[in-house]
Known about the structure:
The chain is 48% helix and 18% strand. It has 9 helices and 14 strands. The longest helix has 58 residues, at 108-165. It starts with a helix and ends with a helix.
Amino acid sequence: MLELMLCSLFTLVPDYLYRRYVQGKRFGKEITFYSVWYELRWGITGCLMLTVALITTIFYFHPSTTSAALFYRTIPILPEGSGRVAEVNIGFSAPVKKGEVIFRLDNSKQTAALDTAKRKVAEVDASLLAAEADVVKAEAQVQEAKSAHQQAEDELNVKSELQRRNPGIVPQRDIEKLQVLVNQRQAGIDAATAVKQSATLRVSTLLPAEKASAEAALAQAQVDLDKTVIRAGVDGRVEQFFLRAGDVVNPLMRPAGILIPDKAGQTSLQAGFGQIEAQVLKEGMVAEATCVSKPWVIIPMVITSVQDYIASGQFRGGEQLIEAQNIARPGTILVFLEPLYKGGLDGVTAGSSCIVNAYTSNHEVISAKDTGGGQAFVLHAIDAVGLVHALLLRIQALLLPIKTLVLSGH
């Protein structure tokens, strides 16, 4: 209606003035209800054509959408494993801080596993002390074997020297027995040395490895026990938390509740524009928004990101071919907007529906030296008609409470 009234000022009104004051025709005489089309045909035709052109120009270069909302992220409250709830620390709705305990699962199994792991570590520590004593014992046995070997070897040397000086004074059989004894004592040294090496290896390598394994099992048991305590991952607020002691939760089938992070839905607004406006929407475009939860307020905004993909065109690989006609309706170009001024979204409820206008600006092109006069005039006209859309948004903002509270029938 606003566009039609504006266009009539340039087409229908001049035609009527010409008929009235130049041709002398008057309403009720030459211009009647039945002759309006014939007498004002040029003005009516021009008005309709200009209105269509103006509406097309406005909605293409200054796109508008009612598919806008302050989407916000929610975090499901889930344990890492299934279990029965033993304790709930918050109510139906409550603020939480990062790291605060929300609820606990029954941990009897995890506590038993932790105690077993602790005892295993203590057992390895005791074995390590015993192994160190075995090393000392093995060292003493080596020293004993060396002493016995040295004694047998000294006796063999003495009798061999006597036999060399006075042949026949020492029976050859005795010398052979001493030689066998020396070899036996040497074997005893080797055996004791091997026992010592085995004990040393057990102390330095085997038992430390067993202790590390036991400590790893202890750490794993502690982790499993900690998983029974579900804490808040971020600062936020828990809403609609119906979980109670005795309930069974499952990370795949039954979440415990929803955690909404602080400042969720207060940083950016997401709007879906028609696909035909994909070439117009650019980062840095100035926009305006009005939201249902904060009526009669126009929020200046700026486009910070334009999504390059349309959600309706996505698919997952499967066993069936894609049929394009199954797409129920064309998708939209998702645009992210942020307030132009700090605190612009204060007072707007997260998730609120909004109306968004974006405005094309050709100032840089118009200011360029190589821009011709005709092109500059057209670009000026395109930028100027954005005022009509801005006025329409303000009218929508004024009528929004009336439309919502009175005309909607709620």
